[in-house]
Amino acid sequence: xxxxxxxQSVIIRLGNRYYKKLGIIGVPFExxxxxxxxxxxxxxxxxxxxxxxxxxxxxxxKDYGNILYKAKNVAEVDNMxxxxxxxxxxxxxxxxxxxxxxxxxxxxxxxxxxxxxxxTIDGHVKEKGDIALIWVDAHADLNTNKxxxxxxxxxMPVALLTSELADYWPHLPGxxxxxxxxxxxxxxxxxxxxxxxxxRLVIEKFGITAFGMEDxxxxxxxxxxxxxxxKIDPNDSRSIHVSFDIDSLDPLEAPCTxxxxxxGLSLREAIHLMEVLYRTKRLxxxxxxxxxPYIGNKYDVRLTIGAAIHIIQAGFGYSRRGLxxxxxxxxxxxxxxx
Length: 338
Fold this sequence. Notes:
The protein is α/β, with parallel strands linked by helices and 338 residues long. It is built from eleven helices and eight strands. β7 (240-245), α10 and β8 form a beta-alpha-beta unit.
């Protein structure tokens, strides 16, 4: 029995050590949408003291810098803007994502627009296999080039990634590296409130797990989070990926984003969501996207970036109850009596 306990103790320590290692990737990419400024998101978050806040959590953090890419020279595809840039950026991102996961680090990806999810999730699936994806967003991002009203990639990543929707796409030059290997049954939406008619049809047709704001109002964010997990990870065994669009928050909480929709998540709800997912010990990747420092005044920018950092902290171990004391400390220190 003693030897079994020793083995269990070693496993727990090793698990905790892995869960303390974090890699950061910046993706200053904005060609998946049309508003200038989203590419400045990674720099703005870093300058706000992100590294210090993460290190205060006791994390072993390594910043791998920003993705550098060359646009692929590809033929145009109807209603798909900047395909060569998206293909070039996301293929590099997928490669680096896989390399960092191989180093036993969880990953924080700083966007950039939401098209970057094509690269992060592709890399996660290729390295970990059967992952669970939680897409926190006001929008479903389920359009194809045939249904999109804009031709912008940041409204298409989920449709590109999921195997059930593969037949709805033409051949995409430059995207041969990316195969839709993620089942739509492994995807859960949280925070939806602006869904196109075609996207709603897809959600209903395939029975996608989708919680809109009215569901959060009815059940509360705590129960919604657990209901989502029970659907997409029923055996508590899959590596979890959260792709968090800042526009899932109400614009009063995060005004600096390109497609704001009123009536969204409160910051408190978003933090609770991330706290629950952190406690699963299976949250291995977080994307934070669509922060645009060019929108709004200085106060708006501080408010939005501050919200993003709170969300990141909650996903990587910050507790509102207070952090645990360092290992080996067992009592409250008494004052020195002179």
